[in-house]
Model the fold of this input.
Amino acid sequence: MNIRLTAFATTALGAIWGAQAFAQTELTMWYHGAGNPEESAVLDQIVEEFNASQSDWSVVVQSFPAGAYNDTVIAGALAGNLPDIIDVDGPVMPSWAWAGYIQPLEIDQGTIENFLPTAIGRWKDDIYSVGLWEAAVAMVTRRSVLEKYDIRIPTLAEPWTRDELDAALEAIQEGGEFDYPLDLGMAWSADEWYPYAFAPFLQSFGGDLIDRSTYLESDGVLNGDAGIEFGEWWQSLFDRELVPGTSQDPADRDSGLIDGKYAMSWNGNWAAANAVEAFGDDVLFLPAPDFGNGPKIGAASWQFAVSASSDHPEGANQFIEFMLQDRWQVAFSNAQAVIPATSSAAAESELYAEGAPMAVFYDLSKEQALLRPVTPGYPVMAKIFRKALADIASGADVVLLDEPTAGMSHSETEQAVALIKRVTEGKTLVIVEH
Done:
């Protein structure tokens, strides 16, 4: 009896010890994709395969609505309960790195050597985040429209100049066929669209939101001659009624090009599939115009990072490295129409392979993309620039670029200045002289 009990106990203990030896440590992850079943399905597949591929870690995902996600992360950081892994919007990454929400990644550099540079989140001398996809903006139109008005079809090598763009818009306007020659998307005024889509115009004029050589001030780059020239051109688009204004109906933004209200639309790859379906081989995705200092478009989409408070950074980094495979980039691209982060993944995707209808967007990301200012102060700059653009479009003096906080409440201005001063860690950051 004793021998049999001892054997049973030994077997039971061995089973327990074996289970403990192979038990996976849980890695928690927050994601912004709640309400997006296609995107979530790809992420779920990645998690399932990662968890099955090794015995050390088990990733558990909690998703949040995109509109509430950033606030959720900030609240989690303040409460000290961030998960191991988070995703972060590219332009927000420096702010979260500076605030101590995320830590530098420790992944094999070889896994990202072929990535688009804008899909890699760098701040100071470290890599804090990596994305599996990019986004790009193009001038969406129809070949038949340009040919009808004898307008040259621009290329990446030879984009439109400012004069060519203006002449094209005026020629289309004179034809009387469309409500407006160009849709800029002014209805999208509440989010990142204005700084993402329109700051590159300013940068192509030769201005910028901040002096990138120091990231300490904007005086002379936002409100210099190039900035004022941009502002005057920007306002002229609305004065000449070449584009809809800030009161644009959001429904027209969504379908105005396809419905025939607009001849051209400044829009992103996320809207391209609908244009392809509507116009077929007649559709064109044209590069950004060159306003004198090279054509520019915005860059950096959602990326993955390890929280600074993670108890398991080794596992979190291992999971992110697992995600970076081309096959997952292709899966996200096919599900969401996003641009793969590597040329090899783009070549395997349904929409961006050579000869595919949206292949040009990868080239646009590679050739024209410019990161939004890589500074923790960017969210404040974006808010100020967004308001200045809307005010100038509505007829305000272009001097608003010289005093972009004009019209903000006193408390908003104080908050902006206070945040920017904090960002420079004791140095005074002057956005503009005012």
